[in-house]
């Protein structure tokens, strides 16, 4: 009697678990195709400050609307984090970035692509495996993908962050610290992280030539980054004056509307070809 009860409980359990699993897989499939249908990846060049030649591309999510406008990532990333959708979306971004890097190489441009990863994604998915899988699928070289993390996400769980970063480093994934200067980093902690690149937030770059306070901050961040042996990138470079100031102060790379707005990959490749002739 007891055994039959147990059996039926197990049968019931098996049934619901497997049908729930099937539901979830169907849902996952729908989410994937929905993501594929709704979102697009744009790419923005990151250039050598000295001569403006391209050093890398950054992948940036776009959510186009029927009227031709875009909902900016600033407005939907948070929502995706709150609902957990960021995990599927983030996985899609990694795979699309890998596909794009393959296309770039095939077009004769061997530039790495930097992928933004949000805090929720960083701590709740097996990023190393996702990068590995995508790189393998598209036959990418070691170092073909970079990852961009923010201070605030690293500071949430410093121990786990360091471990994940070390595993990424072993896979040849370069790590950038994004929006640098806007968070509250513990400098002695930062020093012990396997970082490669520091990205100065665009709020400091905006009026670097005219605002002595921002000029001091940029000088300090450049010197900090270089003393840690990092490549320093300035974000949000919009004018030749900003570019010149940054190059003169030893900034390694620049990114911003001056060098190129984010655009679909084919358009970026077209611009690279035009600039190269
Ligand atoms: P971010 O990673 O710091 O990306 C740089 C942002 O600055 C992008 O905004 C870019 O379009 C913008 N930008 C570039 N040059 C200039 C310039 O000269 N002037 C100005 N005013 N802005 C410039 P976007 O594309 O709206 O993205 C905003 C943020 O959303 C990103 O900041 C990043 O934190 C997040 N994001 C974008 N794509 C993804 C993604 O695939 N995954 C995740 N988790 N976050 C993403
Ligand atoms: Mg699409
Ligand atoms: Mg970024
Ligand atoms: Mg940034």
UniProtKB/TrEMBL annotation:
Domain EAL as annotated: residue spans: 24-276
Q: Which residues of the full protein are shown?
A: 706 to 982 of 982
Tell me the domain of life: Bacteria
Q: What is this protein called?
A: EAL domain-containing protein
């Amino acid at each position: 009697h007891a055994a039959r009860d147990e059996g039926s409980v197990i049968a019931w359990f098996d049934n619901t678990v497997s049908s729930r699993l099937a539901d979830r897989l169907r849902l996952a499939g729908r989410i994937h195709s929905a993501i594929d249908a709704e979102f697009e990846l744009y790419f923005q060049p990151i250039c050598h400050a000295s001569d403006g030649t391209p050093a890398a591309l950054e992948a940036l999510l776009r959510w186009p609307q029927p009227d031709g406008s875009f909902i900016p990532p600033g407005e939907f990333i948070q929502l995706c984090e709150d609902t957990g959708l960021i995990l599927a979306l983030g996985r899609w971004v990694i795979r699309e970035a890998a596909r794009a890097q393959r296309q770039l190489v095939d077009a004769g441009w061997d530039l790495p692509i930097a992928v933004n990863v949000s805090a929720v994604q960083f701590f709740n998915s097996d990023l190393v495996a996702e990068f590995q899988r995508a790189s393998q699928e598209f036959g990418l070289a070691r170092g073909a993908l970079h990852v961009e993390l923010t201070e605030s996400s690293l500071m949430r769980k410093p121990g786990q962050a360091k471990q994940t970063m070390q595993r990424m480093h072993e896979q040849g994934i370069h790590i950038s610290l994004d929006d640098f200067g806007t968070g509250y980093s513990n400098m002695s902690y930062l020093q012990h992280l396997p970082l490669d690149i520091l990205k100065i937030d665009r709020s400091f770059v905006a009026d670097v030539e005219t605002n002595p306070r921002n000029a001091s901050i940029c000088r300090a961040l450049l010197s900090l980054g270089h003393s840690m042996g990092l490549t320093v990138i300035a974000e949000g470079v919009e004018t030749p004056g900003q570019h010149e100031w940054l190059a003169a102060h030893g900034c390694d790379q620049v990114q911003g509307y001056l060098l190129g707005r984010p655009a679909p990959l084919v358009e970026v490749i077209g611009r690279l070809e035009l600039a190269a002739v």
